[in-house]
Every structure is written in C-alpha cells, then in structure tokens.
Amino acid sequence: MIDFKNVTKEYGKDTAAVKNVSLHISAGEFVTIVGQSGTGKTTLAKLMIAEERPTRGSIVIGGWDITHIRHYEIPVLRRQMGVIYQDFKLLQKKKVFENVAFASEVSGTPSKKIHKIVPQVLKIVGLEKQVDKFPRQLSGGEQQRVAIARSLVHRPKIILADEPTGNLDSINAQDIINLLLKINKFGTTVVLVTHNHDIVNSLRKRVITMDHGMIISDQKHGKYIL
Q1: pTM, to two decimals
Q2: Which of 72, 74, 125, 73 is closest to 100 using CA atoms?
Q3: Which CATH class is domain 2-219?
Q4: Mind listing the GO biological process terms from this record (predicted)?
Q5: Which of 127, 143, 217, 222 has the fewest C-beta atoms under 10 angstroms from its C-beta?
C-alpha cells in the first residue's frame, strides 16, 4: 500500500529532514509514526501526500509511483487519501453538511451523489444531528469529527492523521482515536502521526519511531520509546 525506498528529503545543502528511509505499510494496517518535534515525522507525512517531493529515493502509494508526480495529478492522489490535521481546517462560514460536501463539490461530484454520501459519513462519525450547525457551535472534538467525515467522502483507501488530537483534551482525544480504529476496521489503512505517549501506548499497534530524520525503531505491537 505504501512503499518508501531509500527516501531522503533535503532542505538546502546541509539540512536533511528525512534520511534514507525505507518503509512498507500494508493495506489495512494501523500504523503510528512517533518522534519528538523536528525528527522528520511530519515531513514523512507530507511526502506521502505529495506536499513535498523526495530529494532521492522512491515513493509508491497503492501501486502508483508518486516520486515524480505531476502537479495536475496531485488532486487524484488526494482523493485516494483522506487527510486529517490538528487544526481541523474547517470553513467557518459553512455549516457541517456544507463543510463535508465541499471537498466533493470542488472535484465535480454530482449533487445527487453528494447528498447521498454526506449523511452516510456524518453518521459514521456520530454527527448526523449536527448538519445545520456552524463550526463555532461545535466542541473541538466535534469539529475534528467533521474533519474526519470530510476525509471519508471519497472513500479513501488510506487515512493520514497528522497530530489529530493535538488540540483536544484527553477524553475527546480518545474518542477521535476510537473513531480512527473504527474506520480501520472497515479495511482502511490508517497512518497516525503523533507525539501523544498515552495514545500510542494504549493502542498497541505498529509503532515507527523517528529520530534525526531516520527510523530508529519499528515495532509490530509497540510503545512510545523516546
């Protein structure tokens, strides 16, 4: 599903955020990428969605070599990968339904299909009764659920969650992790980037630890070791 082969990402001559990383993530896995700030985990995530390009090495996502992906192909890749961020990135002047529908609208999905899919994904995240509310009327946990619903509208094969609990208290954070586990049980590959020790240790899923741009540990049922 996800293959990195000897990938290096340099910013300038003397700064390498990712150094010679080789990594394989199989379809249906739940993988956590951990490391302290500045260890390269966010850069690794950006490489997965072609927000950054590797300086050297190759990246294959779902059988598609994206190492030299063309700019106009990136939206096609993003429709196969749902991305969830720490800061939600919701449109404040649009209601819940409109926020979730927006990603489909800009990609040209027919209105009839949008009105069928959006209620389905809102039900998955438990927000089917909040469709007419604006983001400011929701809690932080609910806003992140909207963001997760939005990431599901294209029925992606991969969910990349970059610090999705960073702005949440421990109860809401656990709710979001439980939701990601639920999505994973549907067969969706989940890649979680986090520095939350408690979440990582409670999951007991595969843990990839990064330090100074390199993978220093890859545990099948791991813990946060830094």
Answers
A1: 0.91
A2: 125
A3: alpha beta
A4: cell division
A5: 217
